[in-house]
Amino acid sequence: MLHSLFRRTWLKRAILAALAVWAVLVLCPRPAAAQAQPNGPAEFSGEEVMLEGKPILFIPGKATWDRAFPTLTEKFRTIAAFLRDNNLAAAGPMMTIYTKVGDREFEFHAAVPLAEPPPSQPRGGAIRSGQSPVGKALKFVHRGSYDSMDMLYETITHYLDGKRIERAGVFFEEYVTDPLATPEDQLVVNVFVLVQ
User: Tens of pLDDT along 6-49?
Assistant: First the structure.
């Protein structure tokens, strides 16, 4: 399932650009001042983490890849309004949990974590309550636009394949910067890939 996301046909064009960026970053020496700056735009980690489930409010949805970011932010606005109207507070960054991916479209849960489960199930709307993914995962970091994340996902695929790491099927994005307030080209996103 995760693998098909990375095999989208329009990603093929990004591979050459990613290789060029990699060559510049790896083969060209950087000045000492630039080397001292952590977490630059080419950040890639693969840090192993254990995820604990958190209560979440989420809206399930479906979108095409060319409308991904506007669709997700629309769902996040709906959840933010629900939180305000019900005196609830988010207990962490917004996230997109991918439930099904294909070459042209994907299904997802646009989610916001809470400190504790809501007192009752949300009624009369698309918002539902649940739990965030749990288990061993690898964490990667993206800085930049949502559309440029394709290169990160391609790199993750090669990383997992090269190390023969088996995926556990689920992956999600956690928006360190608020996707509703941050310019789209300045996002900071943690990508978690659950592994066996």
Answer: 444 333 434 433 433 333 333 333 333 333 333 444 467 789 99
Show Cβ contacts of residue 155 under 8 Å, excluding neighbours closer than 6 positions: 18, 44
User: Is-contact 184 69, C-beta < 8 A?
Assistant: yes
Q: Are strands 47-51 and 55-64 parallel, antiparallel or unpaired?
A: unpaired
- 111: part of which helix (H) or strand (E)? strand 105-113
DSSP string, 68-87: HHHHHHHHHHHHHHHHHHTT
Query: Residue 86's closest CA among 126, 119, 53?
Result: 119
Q: How many residues does the chain have?
A: 196
Determine the Cα–Cα distance for residues 138 and 153; give it in Å rounded to an integer: 13
Degrees, nearest 5: CA angle 177-57-186: 15
Q: Is there a contact between 18 and 151 (Cβ–Cβ < 8 Å)?
A: yes
In whole angstroms, how large is the CA radius of gyration of the chain?
Answer: 17
Q: Give one word for 85, left, alpha or beta, with left for phi > 0 and alpha for psi -120 to 50.
A: alpha
From 126, 155, 121, select the one nearest 138 (Cα to Cα): 155
- The pTM of the full predicted model, rounded to 2 decimals, is 0.77
